[in-house]
Amino acid sequence: MVQCEMCGSETSSPNRVKVEGAELDVCDECTDFGTEVKQQSSSSASTKYSTSSSGSSSSSSGSSSSGSSSSSGGSSQRRRDMFDEMDELAQDYDETVRSAREAAGMSQEDLARKLNEKASLIRKIERGDTLPSDDVQRKLESALEVDLSAGGTTDESEWSSGSSTGEYTLGDVVERKDS
């Protein structure tokens, strides 16, 4: 007997349905809450990512993982994430903006006028109370001729591993407080 993933009741023949983007094994009563998913035959289902020893859950997780890889064009590459292409804001962005503004001989009001933004926003950014939006960040970088992104500036020696395999372990990157 398998438990319904929505209501928790025991069911001998769960139905695979998609509810708000998630595929669930549910009982007959909960099937109406989603749309039924056609299952692939177990011979074509990949068990590469299966960690379960029960037959029903490994074949269902295998079919869901092979279904997701086929939706990405069948490639074996990792799915692209929108955050991979975003630059992170430097931690000292507030000090960078303030020192660049002062070096240019501008007041907060002058900079705000130049950027077509409010002076209160410039004050908040320089205090570190608010993060600049992408648009405001681009304006600041252009007007003050500074780089506020922290992308790719990590010290590579910090990430050097003692392992000859080139893989990192938690011990390679963690800093202990007691040492």
Automatic annotation (TrEMBL):
Bias (Low complexity) ranges: 41-76, 151-169
Cited SMART domains: HTH_XRE (SM00530)
Domain HTH cro/C1-type: residue ranges: 97-151
One of the record's GO molecular function terms: DNA binding
Biased composition annotated in UniProt, kind: Acidic residues: 84-94
Domain of life: Archaea
Any one Pfam family match given in the protein's UniProt record, by short name: HVO_2718_N
CDD domains noted in UniProt: HTH_XRE
Assigned keywords, A-Z: DNA-binding
Region Disordered: start-end pairs: 1-21, 35-111, 147-179
NCBIfam families xrefs: multiprotein bridging factor aMBF1 (TIGR00270)
Name of the protein described by the UniProt record: TIGR00270 family protein
